[in-house]
Amino acid sequence: MRFAVLLAACTWLAAQDFSDFKIEKVAAGNKFTEGPVWSPEGFLIFSDVPNNRVLKFTPGVGVATYRDNSNGVHGNAIDAQGRVYSCETRTRRVVRRKKDGTWDTLAERFEGKRLNAPNDITVRKDGHVFFTDPAFGAQAEGRELDFYGVYHITPKGELSLLTKVAKGRPNGVALSQNGRILYVSNSDERAVYAYDIDGSGKASNERVVVKDIDGPPDGIRTDDKGNLYVTCNQLSIYSPQGKLLKNIEFPEKPRNVAFGDPDYQTLYVTAYTSVYRIRLNNVKGSVQQ
To answer: Out of 73, 89, 165, 275, which could bridge 117 as a Cys pair, Cβ 3.0 to 4.6 Å?
Structure first.
């Protein structure tokens, strides 16, 4: 029994080794990259927000256009059926791509008022959708809502407010491996909050899991061990308990992150003009998008 415990501990430590990696640039020449997500079709989707487009990077092929005239798409996600969800900051709505290439509007107003500027989005395996709605810079002009929020869309398309953010602005959003914990970064508070999420998508037990982050946190992701990957002044990796495990510096400030490649063991990081990737060992991205 003691041997089994020691073996498990050694396995855990090996899984936490973030020392053996190299950073590769896979895309360049953009203005502000965001919203990375890996498609099961074999490519990475990411936004170039000021250029009003969504691009895709295919390993071994390169970068191509995925969507022009994107209405300022910021965050992207993909559900278990392979459908793409996007946060359009200019139209202030959340949309989903249909098989014919057109887009359905899933959320645009709350209680009759336009959303602020949907920013980041994640989709649970069972189809429940969660997104943040802050307002940064010019997005604050003409706001109709007097709060920043985190929202939930059911598989039937019903929109509800998960939580009003009392302080600061919500930004990145991610789910745990089992889909029972929702993580939300708060850029102004330099913290990451967590919420317990039940089967119907309702939230409870709000708490801070990471605080005093080095720089305003933006996009976040989780791996299959429960670690949190937070983009801030660098990419910071935290344990499920909020302990800092590793800081990874990039030539440009990271803005968002996603796991990709067929085995989900590669980190893709969007950082202003470029997209970078890091191959990890013994670490795999969460199955939740």
So the answer is: 89
